[in-house]
């Protein structure tokens, strides 16, 4: 298997470039896959597992593109200059590049991890083709993701003995159009507001399409999917999506202190993608 091909993509919507890795398929092409990374530090913690899965999918015949969104990883721009809508445009740029490399005849899958899944409905709706979905430990409400991120700042402030009400101050600052520094990231209003309103609701199906969704949660001890996932899966089923769901035994690698692997997740993903 050849090494992934690194490339910088011109992003006309922001006049700079995005870094991406293309994993070419081994053997006949079975499909195209675009990876939608998680939010902030979770992206860095997940790099190894994302790379392992991308290689495994390539060995199974999929062309996989991993893209760093604006202000993230090796892409141009500062995190504080990014926007939710700009990240959606970055994802569409990734699909466009995939198509130039392998054509668009093979089926397309949007593969999200955590908050990356929240980008998928908007990306799918903007595409001019149908697509399938692969969700890893999906965040179902962007509002909760934003609350948890802001909590990192308020928790640190409380430990320093600072006043309460900091969360409201953070929101006021964002509303006024200014960035807020949290855990080493300059959170911009354009990302915060987009994330807060994002939801993992099923996008309208393209005509005559039969989209599939592979929904996987990762846990060391759970015996069934979370209630939030069960509720959301029902909504997707009601919209005509073919759902396949599973639990994979493993650590929450996107937030562990040390970089950890979840090998069962690779196996489960392969089974659900088959």
UniProtKB/TrEMBL annotation:
It comes from the Bacteria. Keywords: Hydrolase. Residues 46-124 form the Serine aminopeptidase S33 domain. Pfam families: Hydrolase_4 (PF12146). GO terms for molecular function: hydrolase activity. Coiled coil: none annotated. This is Hydrolase 2, exosortase A system-associated. The lineage of its organism: Bacteria, Pseudomonadati, Pseudomonadota, Betaproteobacteria, Burkholderiales.
